[in-house]
């Protein structure tokens, strides 16, 4: 089972505290949405979980892999962590010099040491799953933003991760393009993938995710079942935030 | 080592005299060259097609020809057309021409970097074409061009070393004179190199610092 | 006049060979220098910075004289051509290191992050993701530099490499004329650099279409 555990994780940039004693657990197969005003540390938290930004203290555990944040991470642990946890970025970050197919295949060949033919077959399967098999020989620049983000999801899935992190996956997209990405994410959630999603899409938080974590100023201010938090938030800060985003 | 130091001490005054010539030639050719560059830049943007074509031709020829050939042309070539220049004048003429050709591109890029809204605003408040250029576009465009122009000026200073080929008594000519008389080529050219570095390294670092500072103000 | 013209053209192969070899030396050696320039250890970084500053701040003629007269008059004897290849090659290396650095700085940090998040280790991250994109962004500046290098190879005439500028001066001295000979020389250099510029523009356009987002 691949549970994710975040124990008293903190992150500072110099004196500026970005994450202050963050604690939570996620069970295998759960979908958790992280919401909150900008600058609250949501994205940093996500990037700490796969060590794109190493935290300063605390413990991050994914399955039986446990990272002590005060120690220098071993390369083998980092490799395992990144193989277990996939990541999707706000700005897609597809490799512009590789075709769509090669984007999805690259890590399989370099990390899993799969032969090219096998990797390409698996990539085609994933591209079919996100509805983009016909784009496989195109370059990313020829695809719409929504298509690029679906390719990025396929690319992250190619390592057969046990959990997926999404960093505001629809924020750079027009609403109708965001919708096609959200559809793919909903389908992924239905397959039982463990997912942590930093998002501004309140409907996704309410309808797809099991739980919601609300952050402000580097702390978790509220944490609970999606329906409960979205309908009757307890803290004034959450009420204010939900009010502001829904008024938009 | 001690030998080298005393050798350097012996010949340093002569090299410094040469360095003075290098600096003088650079200081004469850079302003003339940048002025030419501005004229060329405006010529390329001119509405008159023949003028535009002529400027493009002159600039491309100036940029396409090695500076060494320009120098030799000015010194050895012009006399056969009835114009004999001293090595000083020939060096200044050639370096200024080359500077003009290169800086015209730098200045043009600076002028083009001024947002089009500035021109529209100038038209909207009723400025004439000349005043648009003089009061709005040039002051902003030239400011953008300052760091690359300074960077190019360092290259012009280095280019004075080619005055060697036309017997201009600059730094390298002096060093070569010492080398061929004493046969200690290595130490004398090392000293000449250090003198160039003593001026160009700080200048390069200053320009790149200036560049960073200016980009900070224009970026956001 | 026709005969004169041919004697200048005789220098063209050497001009091209010198440009090509010096550029190859520089493009290859520029790579480790760029890597050193980015190294975490301070002494390594400073060595690379010193190399780059020295070869960019001291004019080419000094390096050529240093190598040909200085080094070459010692125990090792170097031909003018080899001296020129070494000198211009090292100057090119310093400049290419800076061009690589600029190209790397221009890369979106998201590219490195995406590769890292996929668990791709440093070596393959550079080989498969960063360097291919860098080479494309570096291409226009590299070609601009190569055209400048072509013209700077004329300086090799001063240590006796019999390339175009050398032939031009020999001819001018033989015939006591100059004006038209130098004009022809200028046109030859323009003519050699023209195909470079055309290819560069074409390559830049096609690559930009591909890499554009």
Automatic annotation (TrEMBL), chain A:
CDD domains membership? ABC_HisP_GlnQ
Q: Which GO terms describe its cellular component?
A: plasma membrane
* Residue ranges of domain ABC transporter in the record: 4-242
Record carries keyword Transport = yes
**Record-level Gene Ontology MF annotations:** ABC-type amino acid transporter activity; ATP binding; ATP hydrolysis activity
Identify the PROSITE patterns for this entry.
Answer: ABC_TRANSPORTER_1, ABC_TRANSPORTER_2
Q: What is its main location?
A: membrane
Which keywords describe this protein according to UniProt?
Amino-acid transport, ATP-binding, Cell membrane, Membrane, Nucleotide-binding, Transport
Question: SUPFAM superfamilies recorded for this chain?
Answer: P-loop containing nucleoside triphosphate hydrolases
Topologically, how does it sit relative to the membrane?
A: Peripheral membrane protein
Q: Subcellular location, in the record's words?
A: Cell membrane
Quote any Pfam family the record assigns.
Answer: ABC_tran
Which family is this protein grouped under?
Answer: Belongs to the ABC transporter superfamily.
Protein's name according to its UniProt entry:
Amino acid ABC transporter ATP-binding protein
Species annotation: Jiella flava
Q: What is the lineage of its organism?
A: Bacteria, Pseudomonadati, Pseudomonadota, Alphaproteobacteria, Hyphomicrobiales
Automatic annotation (TrEMBL), chain B:
Keyword Cell inner membrane set for record: no
* Alphabetical GO biological process terms: amino acid transport
Q: Name one GO molecular function term.
A: transmembrane transporter activity
Record GO cellular component, one term: ATP-binding cassette (ABC) transporter complex
Q: Which InterPro entries did the record assign? A: AA_ABC_transptr_permease_3TM (IPR010065), ArtM/GltK/GlnP/TcyL/YhdX-like (IPR043429), MetI-like (IPR000515), MetI-like_sf (IPR035906)
Report the locations given in the UniProt record.
Cell inner membrane; Cell membrane
Q: Does the keyword Amino-acid biosynthesis apply?
A: no
Q: How does it sit in the membrane?
A: Multi-pass membrane protein
Query: Where exactly are the transmembrane stretches of this chain?
Result: 25-44, 51-75, 81-102, 144-168, 188-207
Keyword annotations: Amino-acid transport, Cell membrane, Membrane, Transmembrane, Transmembrane helix, Transport
ABC transmembrane type-1 domain location is 19-207
Offer one Pfam family short name for this entry: BPD_transp_1
Instruction: Spell out the CDD domains in the cross-references.
Output: TM_PBP2
Recorded hits in PROSITE patterns, A to Z, give: ABC_TM1
Q: Which PANTHER family match?
A: L-CYSTINE TRANSPORT SYSTEM PERMEASE PROTEIN TCYL, MEMBRANE COMPONENT OF AMINO ACID ABC TRANSPORTER
Q: Which family does it belong to?
A: Belongs to the binding-protein-dependent transport system permease family. HisMQ subfamily.
This protein is called: Amino acid ABC transporter permease
What is the protein's species of origin? Jiella flava
Q: What high-level taxonomic lineage is stated for the organism?
A: Bacteria, Pseudomonadati, Pseudomonadota, Alphaproteobacteria, Hyphomicrobiales
